């Protein structure tokens, strides 16, 4: 299926690895011009090399990377002023930030909460604010926020994530149903469950060390809770993201799409 995205510009945050890279890879395969962002220059350079290595089928007219902290004003300005980039005139924006640390909410300071809200709520809102009016003026725009399955089914030790990401979800629910929908702009959230990423592997390793069980035992116990009996892959996550960004998804907005292999047990 041709997603109708060739030649458009996309900003993908947290794109040096994991789910962000999966999204960048899927968009690159559709011929999208990319600006990819993460904090680490080395990781971004490596990600860029991987994307360019597939250039026979991945032919973005341009592929730019900007190492910067997107949660800061300076970081966002660096992305918007990237030489050769589109400025603020992105057609697609994929927001993505690493989740805040787990723990008992009693142990979190006010600063912990502010950092979580800054990264997982306010930063996506700032990126939307900077780009959405241009999208509406051109008659096409796609915003995809990578949040978490914890928005749908909160996890007790993820208080920071539960709170900050739920705030973003509420904001998007209202904005997506504004006049932007009639002007060709969709805003949706992707809620990942357990995907095979560095973050998940680190979490499982820490769990194994705390419990005294082997890593394999912890992994198998986690997989047993997923009806699909496996973890997801960043590549298949990226494919769903690319479809949400496509010309075929113009009637889909304000939604929270849960990708968790069937782990969530509810009907709604």
Q: What does this entry show, briefly?
A:
This protein has 268 residues and is of the alpha/beta class. The protein has helices at 18-28, 41-53, 73-80, 110-138, 159-175, 198-211, 215-224, 234-245; strands spanning 9-13, 33-38, 63-67, 92-95, 141-146, 185-192, 256-259.
Walkthrough of the structure:
The chain is α/β, with parallel strands linked by helices. It has a single domain (9-195, 232-259), classed as NAD(P)-binding Rossmann-like Domain (Rossmann fold). The protein has 8 helices and 7 strands. Strands 3-2-1-4-5-6-7 form a 7-stranded parallel beta sheet, sandwiched between helices. It is globular. The mean pLDDT is 94. This is 3-oxoacyl-[acyl-carrier protein] reductase.
> Please, how many helices?
8
Question: Which outline best applies?
Answer: globular
> What is the H-and-E element order?
EHEHEHEHEHEHHHE
The main β sheet shows up as: 7 strands, parallel
The name of the CATH architecture is 3-Layer(aba) Sandwich
Query: Taking Cα atoms only, what radius of gyration do you get, to the nearest Å?
Result: 18 Å
Top CATH class: Alpha Beta
> How would you state the average pLDDT, rounded?
94
Helix content: 40-55%
Share of β-strand residues: 5-15%
Strand pairing plus helix content: what structural class? alpha/beta
Total number of beta strands: 7
How far is the N terminus from the C terminus? 29 Å
Low-confidence stretches: none
Strand order of the largest sheet: 3-2-1-4-5-6-7
Family: Belongs to the short-chain dehydrogenases/reductases (SDR) family.
Pfam families: adh_short_C2
Protein name: 3-oxoacyl-[acyl-carrier protein] reductase
């Amino acid at each position: 299926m041709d997603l109708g995205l060739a030649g458009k510009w996309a900003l993908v945050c947290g794109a040096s690895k994991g789910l962000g890279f999966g999204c960048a890879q899927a968009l690159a395969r559709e011929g999208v011009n990319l600006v990819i962002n993460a904090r680490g220059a080395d990781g971004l350079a490596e990600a860029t090399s991987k994307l360019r290595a597939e250039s026979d089928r991945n032919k973005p007219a341009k592929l730019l990377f900007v190492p910067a902290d997107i949660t800061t004003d300076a970081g966002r300005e660096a992305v918007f002023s990237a030489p050769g980039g589109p400025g603020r005139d992105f057609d697609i924006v994929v927001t993505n930030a690493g989740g805040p640390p787990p723990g008992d909410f009693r142990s979190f300071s006010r600063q912990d909460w502010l950092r979580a809200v800054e990264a997982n709520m306010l930063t996506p809102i700032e990126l939307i604010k900077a780009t959405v009016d241009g999208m509406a003026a051109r008659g096409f725009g796609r915003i995809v926020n990578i949040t978490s399955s914890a928005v749908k089914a909160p996890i007790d030790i993820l208080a920071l994530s539960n709170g900050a990401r739920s705030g973003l979800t509420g904001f998007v629910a209202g904005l997506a149903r504004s006049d932007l929908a009639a002007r060709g702009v969709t805003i949706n959230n992707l809620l990942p469950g357990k995907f095979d990423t560095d973050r998940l592997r680190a979490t499982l390793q820490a769990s194994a060390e705390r419990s005294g069980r082997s890593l394999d035992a912890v992994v198998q116990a986690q997989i047993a809770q997923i009806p699909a009996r496996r973890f997801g892959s960043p590549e298949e996550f990226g494919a769903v993201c690319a479809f949400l960004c496509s010309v075929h998804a113009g009637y889909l907005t304000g939604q929270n799409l849960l990708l968790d292999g069937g782990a969530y047990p509810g009907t709604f």
